[in-house]
Amino acid sequence: MSTSFKKPRRNFRKKVIAVDSESDDDQKEEYENNHDENNQQGCIEETTKKSKKKKKEKDSLGMHRSSSVLSFNEEEEGEALKIKKSSHSKRIAKQLKLATKLAKEEEEKIQVQSESPQRKASPVRREESNEDRDEEIQRLRAEFQTLNGDDMEENESEEETEDGNQLKKMMKKGEIPDANMIHLIRKKRQQARDYGDFIPLDDTERVENSKSRLVRDDDNDKSDDDENERIDFSVNTQARDRIKIQNDFLAAEHGSDNEDSDQEREWEEQQIKKGVSLGSEQADGTTTTTTTTPAEQYNGFQDTVMERKTFTPFTSLTQSAGSTVISMEVIRKRLQDRLDSMDEVHRRHTQDRDSLVSDIADTEKSIETCQDKVAGLEARYRFFQEMRGYVRDLVDCLSEKVPDINSLEQRMMNLWKNQARKFLSRRQQDVRDQCQEYMTNNANVDLTSPEAHERQRRTAEREARRSRRRRARELKDIMGHHDGLSSDDEENQSEIAKYNVEKESVLSGQERVFEDVVEDFSEVDSVRERFEDWKQSYRDTYQDAYIGLCLPKLLNPYIRLSLINWNPLEADCMDFEDTKWFDTLVFYGFKLTETIAKEDDDVRLLPSIVEKVVLPKLSALAESVWDPLSTSQTSRLVNVITRLCRDYPCIQAGSKATQHLLNVIVKRIRTTLEDDVFMPLYPKSVLENRSSNASVFFHRQLWVCIKLLGNILSWHGILSNQMLRSLSLDGLLNRYIILGLCNSGLNKETIQKCQSIISTFPKEWFVGLDEDKTLPQLENLGRFLVSAAKTLYTEGQSKYDFDRKDPREFVKQISKMLVNIHAMEYAVNLPM
Fold first, then answer.
1. pTM metric for this prediction
2. Which of 162, 272, 539, 596 has the most crowded CB, counting CB atoms within 10 A?
């Protein structure tokens, strides 16, 4: 039997328990009930049973002795633990045995009654029926063994066969035996073993003769009906599969399922009747009734009453009554169906063949196309490998040269910055010296102190510079110049020589930067050719790599190196558009026959370079080098920025570089207003003496303020109007210039100063003004002009000769100035 449901045995310490008297009595009763017909035979069997039990006990003791040799079984030899069965189960066993005995007696009586008429009727028939019965019993027994998974037990006792009939009936019905039925079968098998009516399956000798140290319980198992074991009721799948294959074979052999379904059902019924009927067949065809044993009634398995008919051979399966007659139409229809199916298969195969043929043709074309592309792909691969190597080498080269370029650029910027700081500090020191020199209470000044000697030296140098500038104006025949309008940016020869030496050192370093580099990496023209060749050959990959956006950063070191000496604040500075790199990149990536696409990134190459290189350099110059008091520097810087805003669309208010440049310019102007503007105040008696040094110093400072006002307003169109008005009108005109005009006398020079001030105002400020009022920041200037006109008119009425000029002419000029600043309400009320 299968061991799938066996519980593992465990080694428990055995304990000898006296055999229950009730169990002994039960065994005795069973023995008497089963063998009361032949006492002598029973005695012999009882003697044999006792001898076997003794031998079994000896064997078990021998096994214990042999097993004690094991290293893990050195415990005391205990006594076997026996589980006492309940009295209820024993009573059930008695009832089952009694029912079995009665059933056997009843069957024997029926067989005796049936044998006599069969002998008389037909002895051949009886012998055939007995042989058929024996074959059927053997077949059912084998079937039971197959279904129960017990193929190895082929030899069983007759009592097992009789008890097995009940199990066979249950299995035929598809029912599962209960615990009582299983217990009954075990008891019968145990009795058969005790009486010796079985084939021994003992393998004790194999275990005893084995040299293995490990002794398992299963190796010495002498019976399969141990009370701790369970019967395996799992279905034998192999037997079931064999039955299924047999049924399928029979169905295929005898025709279709539809025609033979009735015959199969009839055959199954006959086989069932043959299997369940154990009695012999009646010669006259009368039916016999099978009786149910009490054990069957107890277990709940009630066999239905079956009628036993005389066996008659059934007709052939191929000649069933319901089968159709095969005619030519049927054959033709089947052949037509077969032909149609073959046509369909042929059609599919034809389609598959055509598809394969087309695929082969496409594949051949693809192979030819790929072979044609091999040369181009090889050249493409070689080009990109070379380009990758070139770009890597270029980046490595620039990484080493950028620090040198930064150093040279910083050295040149420091040179310009030191020069501008020197001019600024000298001008501020001159203003302080003159202010201290022209003070009215300077009687206590010590002229012998070192500070006085140093001041005298600076005064002498200042006057010498002024004299040189005056002679230069006379040589150029410049008219209308006033003291204070020129910039004091002259140097002596020693300072100029020192500046030139440092500058030449920086320029020589500029030439040596790429001295140790081959031409492919040292010139902008070489880099341009490489990338331009890439664009012309493989434009799609060029655009996918965003080279147009990377080039400004890649060319940044070359352009910064070429712009090291570029200073637009100097008079002889070359325009950056005249440089070599600009001419090289102006037509980068384009040919004369091609149309320029707006979405091409190379169109923005030069604007990007200007934004990322030129504007930062201008911001650095405006912050550290530019002097707002210098009209020439301011005009040059304004012109450069105005042209950049006009020619390059990237220079706009939204650009960060542009915003940074404008913020630097505003900051530099505010610093000049705070540190460089000074307006001295003297009594009118001092100012009336126009030849005195104090009066000259006062008027020079006033003209410096007017010049600064013009320089600030020259940023009109670049800076916002609000910012310009805040810087020029609020920070300079109303704070310094109006105060100086009020302290100076009314004369021709004063009228010229007013005209110079009004001429600097942008005309766009006064376009679109409502009413007749001027700007709020110009109200002070308008009132001053009205006061000056009234004073001049009063003096003209007293016939005062004002530089031999008619006072009415000055009043007319003041009136025109009021009209220019849109102060109509003041111009209308002037006395004429």
1. 0.58
2. 162
**Model pLDDT, residue 446:** 61
For residue 802, what are the β-bridge partners? 805
pLDDT above 90 (res 689):
no
3 state SS of 764: helix
Strand intervals (E) in 609-703: none
Structure confidence at residue 772 (pLDDT): 77
Amino acid identity for residue 68 in this structure: S
| DSSP per-residue string spanning 102-129 | HHHHHHHHHHHHHHHHHHHH-HHHHHHH
pLDDT above 90 as % of the chain: 32
- By C-alpha distance, which of 818, 784, 627 is closest to 712? 627
pLDDT, residue 30, reads 45
Phi, psi (deg, nearest 5) at residue 320: -75, 155
Inter-residue contact 679 to 702 (CB < 8 Å) = yes
Q: Residue 805 pairs with which residues in a beta bridge?
A: 802
Q: Would the pLDDT of 11 be above 60?
A: no
Question: For the segment 714-751, what is each residue's pLDDT rounded down to a tens digit?
Answer: 999 999 999 999 999 999 999 999 999 988 878 888 88
Which amino acid would we find at residue 245? Answer: I
**Mean pLDDT (whole number) for 315-330:** 61
Are 683 and 434 in contact by the 8 Å Cβ rule? The answer is no
The CA distance from 610 to 652, in Å, is 12
- Rounded distance between C-alpha atoms, residue 59 and residue 763, angstroms: 137
Spatial distance between the Cα atoms of 826 and 528, rounded to a whole number of angstroms: 65
Q: How far is CA 272 from the centre of its chain?
A: 71
Specify which of 48-52, 293-297, 401-405 reaches the highest per-range mean pLDDT: 401-405
Q: pLDDT tens, 342-377?
A: 999 999 999 999 999 999 999 999 999 999 989 989
Q: Which helix (H) or strand (E) holds 618?
A: helix 615-624
Are 180 and 299 spatial neighbours (Cβ–Cβ below 8 Å)? yes
Q: How far is CA 128 from CA 3, 120, 321, 510, in A?
A: 40, 15, 30, 130
Mean pLDDT value of segment 477-495: 80
Q: Rounded to an integer, what distance in angstroms lies between the CA atom of residue 823 and that of residue 821?
A: 6
Cα 198 to Cα 22: distance, rounded to the nearest angstrom? 27
The candidate with the shortest Cα–Cα distance to 437, out of 456, 422, 463, 423, is 456
* Per-residue pLDDT at 167 exceeds 60: yes
The tokens describing 217, both together, are 């319980």
Q: Round to whole Å and give the CA distance between 463 and 476.
A: 20
Q: What string of DSSP letters covers 555-614? A: HHHHHHHHTTT--TTSTTPPPGGGSHHHHHHTTTT--TTSPPPTT-GGGGHHHHHIIIII
Q: How far is CA 425 from the centre of its chain?
A: 61
Helix (H, G, I), strand (E, B) or coil at 719: strand
The Cα 408–Cα 566 span in angstroms is: 13
The residue written with tokens 């008219």 in the block is 479
DSSP 728: I
Pull the structure tokens for residue 742: 């009020």
> Counting Cβ atoms within 10 Å, is residue 267 exposed (0-12), middle (13-18) or buried (19+)?
middle
Whole-Å CA distances, 642 to 142, 617, 625, 648, 718: 116, 16, 19, 10, 7
User: Token pair for residue 224?
Assistant: 């399969």
Q: pLDDT tens for residues 762-797?
A: 999 988 787 778 899 999 999 999 988 888 877 766
Q: Distance between CA atoms of 507 and 503, rounded to whole angstroms?
A: 6
Would you say 442 and 436 are in contact if contact means Cβ atoms under 8 Å apart? yes
* Sequence-distant (≥ 6) Cβ neighbours of residue 832 within 8 angstroms: 808, 811, 815
CA-based torsion, 576, 582, 587, 588: positive or negative: negative
The pLDDT-based confidence of 233 (bands split at 50, 70, 90) is: low
The pLDDT confidence band at residue 458, using thresholds 50, 70 and 90, is: confident
d(C-alpha 221, C-alpha 751), whole Å:
142
